[in-house]
Task: structure prediction
Amino acid sequence: MFETLTDKLSGALRTLSGRGRISQANVREAMGAIETALLEADVNHEIVKEFCAQVLEESLGTTVLESLRPQEQMVGIVHKRLVALMGETAVRLTFVEPGPTVVMMCGLQGAGKTTTCGKLAAYLARRGKSVLIAACDLQRPAAIEQLGIVTASAAASAAGARIAFHGEPDQCGAHGTAVGNAVGVAQRALRRARTEKFDVLIVDTAGRLHIDDALMRELEAVDRAVEAHEILLVVDSMTGQDAVQSASAFHKRLAIDGVILTKLDSDTRGGAALSVRRVTGAPIKFVGTSERVDGLDEFDPQRMAGRILGMGDVVSLVEKAQGQLDEKEQEEIAAKMAKGRLTMDDFLSQLRSLRRMGPLKQLLGLLPGVGSMVKDIDIDEKQFDRIEGMIRSMTKRERETPTLIDRSRVKRIAAGSGTGATEVGRLTKQFEMMQKMMKQMSAGGLAGMSGKLNAMREMAGGAMPGMTGLPTMPSGASHKHDAAKGRFKQRPRR
Result:
């Protein structure tokens, strides 16, 4: 996410590293590089000019010019201005009592609107809301069928929650030509939501390849019919300024309440995220971070600014972990780790929990100091399937005591999992190393932590199959700014 922008901004700010005092010329040079980085990220030109002028004005004050750590001061100023640009504080959905709260989804074709309806339903279900999704796109071929599939997927992901689908295929003619009334479908869905006491009604509306008056008139009619409490515009972040322009056009006609940026996990530039709030005045409420049904995250300007500047987003990482990890199970495993008695079954359980949190490369990007390097990390997610296959091919006794696995057992496990004997041998050796390392870490506290971090990074970056490219920290290295090498290991959160 935003790897290109992060690299360029980090490079611009590094020009100030190692300077005990800096001059106006130094600051202006760095700001020139920041301006170029933002323009190349497809941020609106007027916004870039205003942003840079504000940062420059604050940077030329005595705080930075007299600071012994000018780079850190500049990072703080840029972070603050990025937060202001994206909206200062997070804005959440509003709900009405009694329900249902009506959420109307709109956007151009191809932005991911229908898929996002399912993601939003799953998000709400995880927070205890019952949801009815209404298919009011009567124009696009198979739109109703697609939304039905998406709804079923959302319901399956939120076990125990009530997520239902309202579709009227008979309102569409051959090849998706509308012969019915989208307003009528929306009204009937609303009546059903009230009768069956759903907390939220999500209305999926028609889109177009481009904005036209007919589309806007239909959306306005649907809005009047259901009196939507939240109108959310779904835009493709990868289209940059095109996304911002379409958001502006929709806002003029519909007065949208919020924006959902999709495909943010594939957006290396960030122009839409940095421009849409300033241009439309509507807050970004959610971002799509993966193709998974749970790949919809709340948007927080503070956290996003931290990601853009390579500070990571530990809060989001913790939230993901809390949603997937069982507290009691984690305590039991922590106790086993302390005694060096972790089994292969425990390891497999942890691996599955980690994978449920999302793609590993995305999780690494949330760690401070790693975000800008994620693009250079090569992770083969399929390798984790092979690891699971190897463990499941072991007997119960072998999983409990991996030291029992000799050459003959290695061959049997390899044959059973469709892998090679070398892979099985490497897995058992790494597991043994991990056992020893975890026991030492538990007993040794903070002493020698740098060396232990090296061991973990070496497992992940070199020996561990499927993961390459993680940087190694020199033994005894500090997490502070290294002026000689121009690196900044861990920036302070502002």
